[in-house]
Amino acid sequence: MALPEAKSIEDIAAIPGRIVKIGNRGHASAVPAFGASSHVAKMVLVAMKYNAEMRSAMNIKYDKSLIKIAKAKFAVSSYDRRKEPKEIKMQEGRSTTWGAEQAIKKAGKVPDLIYHGGDWGKEPMIVVLGRDAVDRIFNYSY
Prior knowledge:
Layout lengths: L12 E2 L4 E4 L2 E4 L4 E2 L4 H12 L5 E5 L3 H10 L2 E3 L7 H4 L4 H14 L5 E4 L8 E6 L4 H4 L4
Parallel strand pairs: 6-7
Antiparallel strand pairs: 1-4, 2-3, 5-8, 7-8
Helix pairs in contact: 1-4
């Protein structure tokens, strides 16, 4: 989750590593820390450029059935990693910001969910965006 005036990944708290399922609950692999995420934090910074209230994000496992369910209830957008310009691919860390920009422009707003189906050597991903760290958990029914 980003501070209200976030300008860099150092202004965004994240959980280093992953949240894993143990039993029926999610468990963080470590305590949140500022600057702990790069890719997801960059997506938050892009989202905030278009809507300053969208200050959090979570990367979840890619699953086509989840995307189908989400499209029925939320604003969903995507981008195609295969169309990423070569000059973007060549710069470490630029793919995420490029993709977020593409998905937001395609939707005409910051969507609730952004996904891509992967590319050569790049795993597909789903990013759920929200106003704060618990927005999508408590304020929406799935």
